[in-house]
Amino acid sequence: MSDAENTVYVGNLPWRTTEDDLAALFEPFGPITDVRVVQDPATGRSRGYGFVELPDRPAVAAACAVLNGHAYSGRILLVSHARPKTTP
């Protein structure tokens, strides 16, 4: 992820969600700059959350407003503006 200001956090993803699935979900909000489903490095299994980078802040705001609480493959998504990663 290159720009935290334009990044959306997506939680409560179904385990089988791929990066292509996540990108398709966010396509209506503009071109996808980057998408990542976070995986457990030991097992390779999804951790149930990911990040999508959109072109600008208005697209991020629109995606959060529309998709937060949205039912997706039997799960209710948690969608919010991503917080910058902090280092200990």
Structure description:
With 88 residues, this protein is of the alpha+beta class. The mean pLDDT is 93. The chain has a four-stranded antiparallel β-sheet with strand order 2-3-1-6, with helices on one face. Strands 4-5 form a two-stranded antiparallel ribbon. The radius of gyration is 12 Å and the shape is globular. Helices cover 22% and strands 31% of the residues. It contains two helices and six strands. The protein has a single domain (4-81), classed as Alpha-Beta Plaits (2-Layer Sandwich), CATH 3.30.70.330.
Helix content: 10-25%
The biggest sheet, with number of strands, parallel, antiparallel or mixed sense and barrel status, is: 4 strands, antiparallel
Mean pLDDT: 93
Give me the Rg, rounded.
12 Å
Name given to the CATH homologous superfamily: RRM (RNA recognition motif) domain
**Order of strands side by side in the largest beta sheet?**
2-3-1-6
Separation of the first and last Cα atoms: 19 Å
Following the backbone from N to C, one meets helices and strands in this order, namely EHEEHEEE
Shape category: globular
**Domain module count:** 1
* CATH topology heading: Alpha-Beta Plaits
CATH class, please?
Alpha Beta
- The tally of helices reads 2
Q: Low-confidence parts, pLDDT < 50 over ≥5 residues?
A: none
- The structural class is alpha+beta
Query: What percentage of amino acids are in beta strands?
Result: 25-35%
